[in-house]
Write a structure and sequence with these properties.
Elements lengths: L28 E5 L5 H10 L4 E6 L2 E6 L5 H11 L5 E7 L2 E8 L2 E2 L6 H5 L4 H8 L11 E2 L5 H11 L5
Antiparallel strand pairs: 1-3, 1-4, 2-3, 2-7, 4-5, 5-6
Length: 165
């Protein structure tokens, strides 16, 4: 290849690590995996955190399917700030790659988790949502944050903690 074939505006970056990190493409799927035992309280928590989501219950806890995937890290921070004592995992799929990060009390905890480890005993619904093989709208028992006011969200959270008579 001669010098004539290289475009004049071609630049080789000093640090090539950015080429290995994956693109800055918006995630195609962003999920919050939580140990919350019901979909409604997590949906209410999302409302208070001002996070739009559809929440479904799984065998391991409630899963929030985030609507604004470009703000997934901010959503994980906001929800984990409210669920202060509970660890949550943000799962994102972007450019065919899955990442998993652990959040607690509003902050990311440590490095990324190995996605294979997170998904090793995961319920089928989590894998289906993450891989896009099922739409959240087609699942039973989904609780949407749409139409839930902050007052109603507070009532949902307080009633979730009361024992059934």
């Amino acid at each position: 290849m001669s010098d004539d074939e290289i475009p004049d505006d071609f630049v080789v970056p000093d640090d090539l690590s950015s080429l290995l990190e994956g693109g800055t493409e918006q995630p195609s799927v962003a999920l919050l995996l939580t140990p919350v035992a019901a979909a409604a309280p997590l949906a209410a928590t999302c409302v208070i955190a001002e996070v739009g989501a559809d929440v479904v219950l799984s065998d391991v806890g409630a899963i929030a399917v985030l609507r604004d995937r470009s703000a997934s890290r901010a959503a994980a921070s906001a929800v984990s700030r409210l669920l202060r004592q509970l660890p949550i995992v943000l799962l994102e799929r972007r450019e065919g790659q899955i990442t998993a990060t652990r959040w607690m009390a509003g902050a990311q905890q440590g490095d990324d988790l190995p996605p294979g480890l997170v998904l090793s005993d995961a319920p089928a619904v989590l894998e289906d949502l993450l891989l896009g093989s099922v739409e959240v709208d087609s699942l039973d028992g989904v609780v949407s944050t749409d139409g839930i006011s902050r007052w109603k969200a507070l009532r949902m959270i307080t009633s979730a903690g009361k024992p059934k008579k």
